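In this notation, each integer encodes one residue's backbone shape. One such record reads:

___
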Amino acid sequence: MVDPSSKPDRPPLGPVSLTLRLGAIALVVAVAAGALAYVHGSLDPGRLTPKALVDVLETNNGVHPGYRRNHAKGVCVIGYFESSGEARAYSTAQVFNEARTPVVGRFALPSGNPYAPDSSVPIRSLALRFLQANGQQWRTGMNSMPVFPVGTPEAFYQLQQAGSPDPATGKPDPSKVPAFFASHPEATPFLQWVKGAKPSASYASESYNGINAFYLVDGSGKRQAVRWGVVPETRDGPDAGSAPQGADYLEQDLVRRLAQGPLRWRLQITLAAPGDPTDDASKAWPAQRPVINAGTLVLQSTQAQNSGECRDINYDPLILPSGIQASDDPLLAARSAAYASSYLRRTSEVSQLPGAQEPRP
């Protein structure tokens, strides 16, 4: 892992250090898609099931009753979305056509350990639920990395298996993760990003990428393939991004910043061109693709994750309003299935959460 006290001009990681770092990241690499498995996979013994995927996450991270099996450590945020109107030409979704839409979100770390130090991984995540006036919802999960390491649920499961503890030693076999990446060249863009990534000092300074493709649908039924993400309106200076010492600085920093006023991100939607892959989250689209500013995400306050509004929300990426449709990316159906499996486990354990209140109706 990156040393939180390291300086920006530190020398590049050597082969041994890089291997160790990749091995550690493999244990928490469930970032953009979280737990993955095929929808209805339990009907076919030969296919990957939601249970198998959630089980391997528990094997790698331990079981922490009441917490999400991935992205377990986080904080609830409350705010709203202000539409700019620029997405109206592409989608009938009310979120793009109304002036303001309430939002309940959650910042988190990509790990199944709710007690992991904030500096343990260089990735941060942001999940959002937009509640439209017509009752429809849009839920999305985004991460601070640009691409997913692999493009299929099976490959993700194999990566998790490569990072699982050996029953004989209680520790992962250090040769398995490098061997996995050597046999999966599609992971090269992700690995290139990892080499230069380091834990940031603030959720507020990060951009978050949706990674998976979706379709915006206009009033005539025309579909436009897109990917979305949010970009902070105010960025920290170049010397303010390194993670400080300490286990829980991200939530403390967020509370401090919000006490000074709301935080804002621009919702940027990238428009695909014909031929851009919509079924593979490990592949980036060309940088010159058109980008529209769909509006501004405004976050106003935080809530403790064990009792806040975000606790009982399953940020299923296939909960979409009219005007937004899923693409053919297999990770989307996989995420939906395994999120449901994890949700059922953790909501049956809510009473074991520290500081938890009764489940909401």
About this structure: The helical segments are 15-26, 50-61, 94-97, 153-162, 176-182, 188-196, 249-259, 330-347. The first strand starts at residue 74 and ends at 83. Residues 1-46 have pLDDT under 50 and may be disordered. Residues 330-347 form the longest helix (18 residues).
